[in-house]
User: Fold these one by one.
Assistant:
Number 1:
Amino acid sequence: MNAERAAAIRAIANKEPVAFERGTAQVPELFAANVFGPQQMRSRLPEAAYKALHLCMTQGQELGPGLADQVANAMKEWAIERGATHFTHWFQPMTGSTAEKHDSFATLEDGRMLMEFSGKALIKGEPDASSFPSGGLRATFEARGYTAWDPTSPAFLRETTNGPTLCIPTAFCSWTGEALDEKTPLLRSLEAIHREAMKMLRLLGEQKATHVYPTLGCEQEYFLVDRDFYLRRPDLVATGRTLFGAKPPKGQELEDHYFGSIQPRVLAYMQEVEHELWRLGVPVKTRHNEVAPSQYELAPIFERTTVAADHNMLCMEVLKQVAQKHGFHCLLHEKPFAGINGSGKHNNWSIATDTGENLLDPGHTPQANMRFVVFLTAVIRAVDVHADLLRCTIAHAGNDHRLGANEAPPAILSIYLGEQLTDVVDNIVSGTAAKSEKRKDTMRLGVTALPPLPRDATDRNRTSPFAFTGNKFEFRAVGSSQATAKPNVVLNTIVADSLAFLVDQIEAQKGQKGLDAAINEVVIETLRKHRRVLFNGNGYSAEWHAEAAQRGLPNFRSSVDAIGNLCAPKNIAMFEKFGVLTAKEAESRMNIQFEAYCKAISIEGLSCLSIARTMVLPAAQAHQGAVAQSIAAAKACGVEVSGQQKRLLAMSSLIEQLVARIDDLSAQFEQAESHPGTPAEHARAYRDKVATSMVKVRETSDHLETMVDDSLWPLPKYREMLFLQ
Ligand code: ADP
Ligand code: MG
């Protein structure tokens, strides 16, 4: 075997599960130990200040300068006691990851060092914005940007080997107030859905609730590969996925990995990840093996969206950092390995009130049922009217390998409701008896009770991109590597839009008909119109694709086709109406998304070229040379070699093919790179020229991998990376 690969395997054979400093604290004690949360605030702030801050955190009220100074000081004292010397405004630029610039608390006074932290420094930072993507928003002469504290997400201490850093979750804007991050539109979308849902609740007669907020729980899938393999795979290092690799003899066909017993080294890793996340206040709850070999999942208990979105960023960071310590590399890419399942991030989404009600819970009384059906109707309309926009939020190069690939939801955005609930909808729409219930009466909202909906029965269809699962919707098409802000901004906004639409319709009709009848008719009318988006069958099937086309549901097969939807006139109008994005902001985001696509494919193309030229081709040629020599020597001795010559010929023609395909990729790459036109056209060129040529280079290389002497093959093989831990 190739010496490098052999060394990696020997190293793995000697690796033991890695222990970590657990301490003696039980989970309830260590949970949120590194968070400046309600407990810390209460004990360190005067009563009045605490109450005011609490309102800022839960109701989004503004933080005055006096209060900011008090909070900053308390936060600093707490952080310094734990050994922190620096703080950072922690934000989410439009790179898909988080950013931080550290400042120390130090100030100089008469030659002495003091540790200070003002309210001003807490509320506002001024990092240079010029090196973050802005999609053309920020002129080069106006490079300044500022970060602003988001009090709805608590500050935390991020511990590293030599001491903690105080991290303050912030939003990031240009000097002229345009959003340069993922957080700002998320906060704006929360405001929008709160406002519109409150109007609806008041219309339905709800008097107690004063605040509505979406909830979010992100199931996170990931792969682990041993670090010794990872470091020998330049494609994994540069792109997060394997650009080469022949199918191994065993893949996931035995179905023995899903929920299988967790390998000890992996379990040790998961335990440390959980410990670290608990200390950061992330309520992680479940861990298990996923379908593909070496694939795993972690899921937290759901929280308010801003907190959950930040917590998912922390999850991804911690998964990566702890992996290193355990001799693994954590792959968050949507498709690290061809031929086996990819990774997603199920985005579990619902809406709650400050009185503790889940607005997507069907409830038990006719009144609660009515509220549920109204909010359900809003979601159904939202997904049907804005399927294009939802599709756009999950459009990136990595997810293209997953969506529609028969192990992940199709790119057609339909809703799965389950049989009973679909029956209810049908009954409401048609006024005929429900099939399963054999009920004679028409479902009349606010008067008739819903049949009981067993929660478990709703979660059996894994082929649906958007499924109702008892009391929440699960948006399953989100990619594993994605920041969750983008899909949630859109979910919140389109549902706010639908709620506003329904409120307007009901208001317009209630004078004439009375409230109940108006609600009933508006719901019937809306469901009738948007029922086409409901689909309970197999989302992978060819029949569904044909039927969806007949129903007029859009099917944006690749990211490049979907990204432009962000700026469709109807979508811009909606973003502006609800104050979530200006037209300029939306356009800049679209450009960034196209650019990100081009960059991803460009890096893959260059990695593919480099590996093919400097690793695969030399290995194949070395093997060819050795075989040719061996055949010549045998022939000289008068031995029969015709079979061997045939094999040599087959291999040599594959090598010729590889050379030709490398040259083609190189030519296509140059064309794509210099392709003139809009960001969309540029992205299309990368997809049609580079991405397709890469597939061909891989095809030939993977074929050669099955023929070339194992001792010459430089890249760790699938059978090794996926099964040796
Ligand atoms: P699975 O989808 O694998 O069957 P679960 O049903 O346990 O798993 O839930 C998955 C995720 O959904 C968890 O993160 C959970 O906290 C989250 N979740 C549950 N209820 C809600 C809710 N009301 N709003 C948002 N997320 C929720
Ligand atoms: Mg799930």
Number 2:
Amino acid sequence: MLVNGKHHITIWTEKKYPSIIYTIDQNLLPHKFEIIELKSSSDIISAIKNMTVRGAPLIGVTAAYGIFLAAKEAYAKNLNINRFDNYIYRKSEQIKSTRPTAVNLFNAVENSLNQIYRERTKVKKVEAAFVYAKYLSDYEINSCRAIGKFGLNILKNILKRKKDKTINILTHCNAGWLGCIDYGTATAPIYFAHKEKINLHVWIEETRPRNQGAGLTAWELMHNNIDCTVITDNAGGYVMQKGMVDIVIVGSDRTTFNGEVCNKIGTYKTALAAKDNNIPFYAALPVTSFDFKIKDAMKEIPIEERNGKEVSHIRGLYKEKIINARITPQKCKVRNFSFDITPSKLVTALITDKGIIKPDVRIIKKLI
Ligand code: MRU
């Protein structure tokens, strides 16, 4: 999508079998747009851990490039084939331990390892890791494009009944192109509708504690000329009660067979408010964000709990410097639950790259 009028994606390389993976430092946004270089599997591990890169599809693709860099490192060490595979395996375990919730990370690592293990020579293994990372990146772009097209039909249907001919969409966190490779998941229908000159306005819940809504979604929508307004997480219910929201679209980090949607903390409360106000609530996700192994989301999805400092302190720009200001009493106990689960009874439908589907086990099973 556009940044200062120029098309960007979130992760790329400049040549085949490169030594550098380029990405955007999301920790500096919205204050500074900076491209950074990831040159080793350790750089990849830190980037996912400290959320330089974030968002389920982008985490998956970054992890796949991490396996590729690990394969290159193993190659440079001139290890025998068993130790070569072991080195990559050890790195893959470290990559998997960076963040627990987005299933894309685990799927990407497993799939990449399978491609590597299939090959017999070290050169072929390095090649296979690169080909998979690039394939996954392109796959995610195409998936988001498909989500955009399917979601556009939903927005067009809403438009038919709107007297003022403006659709108000509410979203949470950043399920935008920044969290993916291009287009985004929740934002893809918005970008497609905007392209068709449909009038729309987006309410963005700020998404405490890291404020990906306020900092990232607002930034990317504004760069793409989408009318948007940031509200506090607590205000979502109020704008719904006031009839100022036509549809809620969020992303997902992991969705189960039963259509339970795990997404950024606060999504569940937004879904409850939508239900109470008869507002359709959609989760937009590529098939890579489904976890077909999990049966009971509440019991089985590992919910990330991040550093409490993200709750006790607030990050922002002050006199041209990014600072962390404390907002709780000193030594106050805090917990930082980072994701929650929205039960399928609160989900109108899932907008996937394979079509719009009900959050129902019989339908989701057909996706495998
Ligand atoms: O902790 P984050 O910023 O990685 O969380 C991101 C989200 O919750 C998004 O909604 C998500 O990954 C959806 S897909 C872009």
